[in-house]
Amino acid sequence: MHTSINGLAVLCTTLLAATAVAQTNSAPPRERIQRGEYLAAIMDCAGCHTPGAFVGKPDKARRFAGSEVGFRIPGLGTFYPPNLTPDPATGLGKWSEQDIVKAVRTGVRPDGRMLAPAMPYESYGKLTDADALALASYFKSLKPVSHAVPALTGADEKPSAPYLSVVGP
Hints:
The protein is α+β, with helices and mostly antiparallel strands. 41% of the residues lie in helices and 7% in strands.
């Protein structure tokens, strides 16, 4: 009997310790979202992904909803920063947090396409797992904004909306 009571005590202690470690390693969602908000601010995600930002008049009501002004990259085409809100039709609503993490860190979208090279995913690839997840959680927590950005165009196609030219030195 003494052995089974000791075994039960060890099992309970082990389960309590494992639960405490799990709770310590995973930040509560509110704290994770706040961390993601901070990261989005210091990474200046709104600087590209907010309507009007490129013309000096960011539309704060549609923050992170994508830009009507794109980047024209010689030899590649014109790319418009997409809607990062969780709108299912025009934004990241159908993407999982892991889809967002992968795109931010590797430049690969869920459909396999690469993001435009103007997106600094090589730098963002250095984000810790926790920070990348926090950023994704923050974007998923935003109010969805229905806003379709102009379609990307190929190198030999005429863009349908305004763009900035990226010129190498």
